[in-house]
Design brief:
Layout: E1 2-7, E2 21-26, E3 29-33, H1 39-45, E4 55-57, H2 63-66, H3 69-78, E5 85-90, H4 93-104, E6 117-122, E7 127-130, E8 133-139, E9 149-155, E10 158-162, H5 171-176, E11 181-185, H6 199-205, E12 214-217, H7 221-225, H8 227-232, E13 236-237, E14 243-245
Parallel strand pairs: 3-4, 4-5, 5-6, 10-11, 11-12, 12-13
Antiparallel strand pairs: 1-2, 1-14, 2-3, 7-8, 8-9, 9-10
């Protein structure tokens, strides 16, 4: 399994980082975990071909996590893609995607595409096949006008856990259990921010996270300002372009 952080930033480009998107490849498959509005730019910077993406998994319906989908779909339409693109996201994804397409590219929903866009709406606390990935979801604590999910992917023999955006919740313990990599947000360093994780809270609960490797992402300005302290604690922080091979 190869992970590449297409974007490791927050919604506002803190530190000059692109919005959230993680490329996951294994055994000829390619899945994106989240697809922020800058994802197409990030894919091209890394030389990752959008046409190779089998599926996109969305944790929640904020623009910095799903706003790149209209751009990806339109790009693939112009590229004359023919094979289906599968999108898995929380309940409400299909309607929100249709609205986003219409707002950003009026009339694009009425165009006959060469390829299908298949939307799979994921129920919390269930396992579902989305494209080539087996995805298990947990409910997390983040308001986005629709359910917010933590995602656990079975990619061949490897397991990836992803928190999405969330305040601390015991559901993260189940999500991280036995994962080869747990990609977890840490928006702030020690300042509580509603619906988000701060590193101080994560550090308090670190011993309970039984994952093999923890990688922090979605750092905001305060967390970035304390990066040296994170690294002194032995914490791995994702940058745009970070590549992990397992």
């Amino acid at each position: 399994m190869i992970l590449e952080f297409v974007g490791a930033g927050d919604a506002f480009g803190s530190g000059g980082r692109l919005q959230t998107c993680v490329s996951v490849r294994w055994a000829g498959h390619h899945v994106l975990v989240d697809c922020g509005a800058t994802s197409l730019v990030g894919l091209r910077r890394l030389g990752l071909e959008p046409a190779a993406v089998d599926a996109v998994l969305v944790s929640h319906l904020h623009g910095d996590h799903f706003g790149g989908l209209p751009f990806l779909i339109l790009d693939q339409q112009f590229a004359r893609r023919e094979r289906p693109l599968t999108i898995g996201g929380p309940v409400g994804t299909a309607a929100r995607l249709e609205q986003a397409l219409e707002v950003l590219f009026p009339g694009s929903n009425r165009v006959q595409r060469r390829f299908r866009v298949d939307v799979v709406e994921l129920q919390p606390e269930m396992a579902t096949d989305v494209g080539p990935a087996r995805v298990t979801t947990v409910s997390v604590d983040h308001a986005s006008g629709a359910p917010a999910l933590g995602l656990r992917l079975q990619c061949g023999s490897r397991r990836l856990a992803y928190s999405g955006d969330t305040a601390w919740t015991p559901a993260l313990l189940d999500l991280a259990e036995g994962a080869d990599v747990f990609v977890c947000e840490a928006y702030s360093f020690d300042r509580p921010i509603r619906y988000h994780l701060d590193y101080a809270t994560l550090r308090t609960n670190r011993a309970q996270l039984r994952c093999r490797r923890l990688v922090l992402t979605h750092l905001g300005p305060q967390a970035l300002a304390h990066r040296a302290e994170l690294e002194a604690d032995g914490i791995e922080v994702a940058d745009d372009g970070l590549r992990i091979e397992l």
